[in-house]
Design goal:
The complex is a heterodimer of chains A (222) and B (265).
Chain A: H1 8-12, H2 14-47, H3 53-65, H4 69-79, H5 89-114, H6 118-126, H7 131-161, H8 173-184, H9 187-217
Chain B: H1 2-29, H2 31-38, E1 40-46, E2 48-49, E3 53-55, E4 61-62, H3 64-76, E5 79-85, H4 90-95, E6 101-106, H5 110-115, E7 117-123, E8 126-131, E9 147-151, H6 155-163, E10 169-173, H7 176-184, E11 190-194, H8 195-203, E12 211-218, E13 221-225, H9 230-246, H10 248-257
Parallel strand pairs in B: 1-5, 1-6, 9-10, 9-11
Antiparallel strand pairs in B: 2-3, 3-4, 6-13, 7-13, 8-11, 8-12
Classes of the chains: A mainly alpha (222), B alpha/beta (265).
Organism (chain B): Desulfopila aestuarii DSM 18488
Signal peptide (chain B): 1-27
Domain Solute-binding protein family 3/N-terminal (chain B): 40-260
């Protein structure tokens, strides 16, 4: 084999890669935090068919889940400026991730909410819990606990999908890798490194989410 | 004995060749006169490289190079015969005498200069930074704090990365169309690309025209002619110079590239 492996290109550009990793993590963090909030609101309104809100969420979910992430990203970045809404690459990426994860997590959490038997709500009522207390302790916590593994998977999927944001010049990990590749032509070394970085990130994110799940949802000592 | 005959034959053939050589070069010495006496100027033009040369709806070639060829034929007072060529065979067409001139968005380089001669430049061909009218940017340093879109890994990316100031924000996109979209949708203030790409965008009359701000890499187009044709060379350079002065070249540039000719062409 004539190819000389050289990781010098990585060493001299580690700062760029590190910044890329940081941005990917921040993107994922904001995307999943806001996304899950949207998802929770959406799940409850859909599961309990709250008037208006449940219709709005149905339209939103159908639109987002039936279109590709890349197209949503292009629409927000290239399309919306025509309507006077100008978001830069980073803002457009965050918004798309929030919108995307919001729709998927709505459906995941809704499954959890539906899994709570009606009898439990009646029991809460007979214990003189108000509506908010019943929602929080009787519905949401067990619902989230039931679907937490599925939600974690979705967050990891969205994180890996954020590599697409490089297409609108959001400077996340894939953008950094592409940039180094154009400047040094060390495709093997760079994409191997970024693959390993994504793998590491995915494992870490999953671990963190498991901790969060145990501490805040199941209320167990980690 | 047999070998002797063979070598005689070889010598004879070789000798004939030598004798024929001065004759043929004498004939091509007067390329300008030859064009005049035949009354036809044969020009190699592109047919697959708009806006320099493409095929119109009536199957006739049209473009910057075709208009340039027509202008020269008119100045010489002869009929024009267009010969469509590809970028790989345009120089062989000239050296084998199938055409008199190559006007085919031909750039100058040392390898080509060994084989053919070049006149003065007649068309701009460059990579540069483009932006909306009225933006005062005329050199790389003016990009301080500004956003520029560029296609990742392109010549303009590599060159701009070298010359742009530290604080210029370069957004790299995957392909030309994303780069241009980023500019047209207002996501970036400027765009670095080729003047031909800019021309094809301006052709569609976008809301923000692309006006050339400064050049990154310049390799203008020249007319290619056969070697050792001083008379033709002088005549062509005269025509190009007067076309520059009279504004004839300017109007060809406006027609096909939708921009002013660069001052230093």
């Amino acid at each position: 084999m004539a190819y000389q492996f050289s990781f010098e290109a990585i060493a001299s550009n580690w700062e760029l890669l590190a910044r890329g990793v940081a941005l990917t993590v921040v993107l994922t963090a904001i995307g999943s935090f806001v996304g899950i909030i949207i998802g929770t609101v959406g799940a409850v309104s859909r599961a309990w068919t709250l008037p208006l809100l449940s219709q709005v969420f149905t339209v939103y979910i159908e639109c987002v889940r039936n279109t590709p992430f890349l197209v949503q990203l292009y629409f927000i970045f290239f399309g919306l400026p025509a309507l006077g809404v100008k978001l830069n690459g980073w803002e457009a990426s965050v918004l798309t991730m929030v919108i995307n994860l919001g729709a998927y997590s709505t459906e995941i959490i809704r499954a959890g909410v539906m899994s709570i038997p009606k009898g439990l709500l009646e029991a809460a009522e007979s214990l003189a819990m108000n509506r908010w207390q019943a929602l929080r302790y009787v519905v949401l916590r067990p619902a989230l606990k039931n679907v937490w593994p599925a939600l974690c998977s979705q967050i990891v999927i969205v994180m890996l999908g954020s590599s697409v944001c490089s297409q609108i010049a959001a400077q996340e990990l894939t953008y950094a890798a592409n940039l180094i590749q154009t400047q040094t032509f060390r495709a093997f070394e760079i994409y191997l490194t970024s693959t390993l970085l994504y793998l590491m990130l995915a494992v870490l994110v999953r671990k963190c989410l498991n901790q969060i799940g145990m501490r805040f949802i199941e209320r167990r000592k980690a | 004995m047999k070998r002797n005959v063979l070598s005689w034959c070889a010598a004879l053939v070789f000798g004939l060749h030598l004798a024929a050589l001065p004759l043929s070069s004498e004939a091509s010495d007067n390329a300008l006169e030859k064009i005049g006496s035949s009354g036809v100027l044969k020009v190699a033009v592109p047919q697959d490289f708009p806006p320099f040369g493409s095929v119109g709806p009536d199957m006739k070639p049209l473009g910057y190079d075709i208009d340039m060829a027509a202008l020269i034929a008119q100045e010489l007072g002869v009929k024009l015969e267009l010969v469509p060529v590809t970028s790989t065979n345009r120089i062989p067409y000239l050296t084998t005498g199938k055409v008199d001139l190559v006007i085919s968005s031909l750039g100058k380089n040392p390898e080509r200069q060994k084989v053919i001669d070049f006149t003065e430049a007649y068309a701009p061909f460059y990579n540069g930074v483009f932006g909306p009218e009225g933006e005062a940017v005329s050199k790389p340093d003016d990009l301080t704090g500004k956003t520029v879109a560029v296609t990742r890994g392109s010549i303009e990316d590599l060159e701009l990365t070298k010359i742009a100031p530290e604080s210029a924000v370069i957004h790299r996109f995957e392909d030309n169309s994303s780069t241009i979209s980023a500019y047209l949708s207002g996501q970036v203030a400027f765009v670095a690309t080729g003047n031909v790409v800019a021309a094809s965008i301006n052709e569609q009359k976008p809301n923000k025209m692309l006006e050339s701000k400064f050049l990154i890499k310049n390799s203008p187009c020249y007319i290619g002619i056969n070697k050792e044709q001083p008379a033709l060379m002088t005549k062509l350079n005269e025509i190009i110079a007067s076309a520059k002065n009279s504004g004839a070249l300017e109007s060809i540039s406006q027609k096909w590239l939708h921009t002013k000719l660069p001052q230093d062409l």
